[in-house]
Write a structure and sequence with these properties.
Helix content: 25-40%
Number of helices: 9
Largest sheet: 4 strands, mixed
Radius of gyration: 22 Å
Number of strands: 14
Oligomer: single chain
Order of helices and strands: HHHHHEEEEHHEEEHHEEEEEEE
Cofactor: Fe(2+)
Pathway: Amino-acid biosynthesis; ergothioneine biosynthesis
Catalytic activity: gamma-L-glutamyl-L-cysteine + hercynine + O2 = gamma-L-glutamyl-hercynylcysteine S-oxide + H2O
Strand order of the largest sheet: 12-11-10-13
Family: Belongs to the EgtB family.
InterPro entries: CTDL_fold, DinB-like, DinB/YfiT-like, EgtB, EgtB_Actinobacteria, Sulfatase_Mod_Factor_Kinase, SUMF_dom, SUMF_sf
Strand content: 5-15%
Length: 451
């Protein structure tokens, strides 16, 4: 199947029937994933496992309400099914810590509700004109919106399941072995100075914050070939990195003292060895996997300790997606072809990052590996609009978050689905966040002798 109309780089001359089949398949896949993560006893679903997270049953009904709002009401013009619950599932009216006290739908009622919404959504898909000039309908943007939104909530559900500490709730899966020796050393790749095109005007399901495409001129720099590994991060810990104020910004040091953190979240030291708790299972920390569950302050401190820095968002995107030979952006590091089992660890293929070096066929044009999948990677950049930004389809998706409160993450974790991952995709969060599947890689500016 040629998926160019939805996944590729050209939204012209789409085969409407073909794209509708793809959308229907993606809707089915994401809903199956949501129901799998909420296939648990009611007590687990209604309980709040952390003030940072919603009860799982809130997320489940919220994705249905979002789908009703945008596909049925906005794109389909259908009379609201459950307007009385809109307020309960408005994420901007009710902080996560307050959601357990709301009269939200119970597990069975939530499942019936989202099933009823989905049936009507498929009817709208049958009737909609994907060549409609309305930007919400054209190329099925509204369906891409709800598919990606649900996948993002599925990843949030996984973070909640991790925080619950309950074993047996998450499928493990298998991963390829890493390349021998890949986790040792601090391999870097060189990115020459010069302009590249950041963002996109071509990918029809891209969010407003990825637009418009614009040229950015960067000086030459080096960036890590791989994300920072558990083994490398452990060296920082054992060298007293958490206790040495030289490596911490003033804000980071305040966070460090307030949190009492001395290792990544879910790590403990026992009998001289480091262990992690992963979805209720206690296991030795694998040295060759990318470190995850670190906040921005921890990533920044490690980079300072290592004599490096975090890459800017622009540096990250150029190293990941720019093709200097073709002089154009790629959708993925390796090109425009869809992710496959030999290119990236995505879509909960396994419930953990893959060993470093596991996907050499997924390397970028500059030789950086595992930039898509594994862990969300912190960058040094604040979440800001691109020049010429226009809010669409609503300001609460991106616009209200712009500013210095949030740092940008790139790449997508092992829990992210390919439908919500591309070289231009921008994630953002508070610099204190650790429950997300976040890691990082380092960069450094090239010296005059290296240019």
């Amino acid at each position: 199947m040629n998926n160019a109309g939805v996944w590729g780089v050209d939204e012209r001359d789409i085969d409407e029937h073909e794209v509708k089949e793809l959308i229907a398949a993606e809707l089915t896949a994401v809903r199956s994933r949501s129901l799998t993560y909420t296939d648990a006893d009611d007590d687990l679903l209604v309980r709040q496992h952390s003030a940072l997270m919603s009860p799982l049953v809130w997320d489940l009904a919220h994705v249905g309400n979002y789908e009703e709002l945008w596909v049925l009401r906005e794109a389909g013009g259908i009379t609201p099914l459950r307007p009385e619950i809109d307020d309960l599932y408005d994420a901007f009216k009710h902080p996560r810590r307050d959601r357990p006290s709301l009269p939200i739908l119970g597990p069975e009622e939530a499942r019936r509700y989202i099933s009823g919404v989905r049936g009507r959504v498929l009817d709208v898909l049958d009737e909609i004109d994907l060549n409609d000039p309305d930007p919400l309908r054209r190329n099925g943007f509204v369906f891409g919106l709800v598919i990606q939104h649900e996948h993002q909530h599925d990843e949030t559900m996984l973070a909640t399941l991790q925080l619950s500490g309950r074993p047996g709730l998450v499928i493990e899966g298998d991963l390829p072995p890493g390349r021998a020796g890949a986790a040792s050393g601090a391999e870097e790749v060189f990115v020459p100075g010069g302009p590249f095109v950041m963002g996109t005007d071509l990918l029809p399901w891209a969010y407003d914050n990825e637009r418009p495409a614009h040229r950015v001129d960067l000086p030459a720099y080096w960036i890590d070939r791989f994300p920072v590994s558990n083994g490398a991060y452990l060296a920082f810990i054992e060298d007293g990195g958490y206790d040495d104020p030289r490596w911490w910004s003033a804000e980071g040091l305040r966070w460090r003292h307030k949190s009492g953190a001395s290792a990544p979240l879910f790590w403990t030291k026992d009998g001289g060895a480091w262990w992690r708790t992963r979805f209720g299972r206690r296991e030795p920390v694998p040295a060759d996997e990318p470190v995850q569950h670190v906040c921005w302050y921890e990533a920044d401190a490690y980079a300072r300790w290592a004599g490096r820095r975090l890459p800017t968002e622009a540096e990250w995107e150029k190293a990941c997606g720019w093709d200097p030979v073709a002089d154009r952006a790629r959708k993925y590091p390796w090109g425009d072809g869809d992710p496959g089992p030999g290119r990236a660890n995505l879509g909960h293929r396994a419930a953990r990052p893959a060993p470093l070096g596991a996907f050499p066929d997924g390397a970028s044009a500059y030789g950086a590996e595992q930039m898509i999948g594994e862990v969300w990677e912190w960058t040094s950049s604040h979440f800001l609009p691109y020049p010429g930004f226009r809010s669409f389809p609503y300001p609460e998706y991106s616009e209200v978050f712009f500013g210095s409160d949030y740092r940008v993450l790139r790449g997508g974790s092992w829990a992210a689905d390919p439908a919500a991952v591309r070289t231009t995709f921008r994630n953002w969060d508070y610099p204190i966040r650790r429950q997300i599947f976040s890691g990082f890689r380092c960069a450094r500016s090239a010296s005059p002798e290296e240019v």
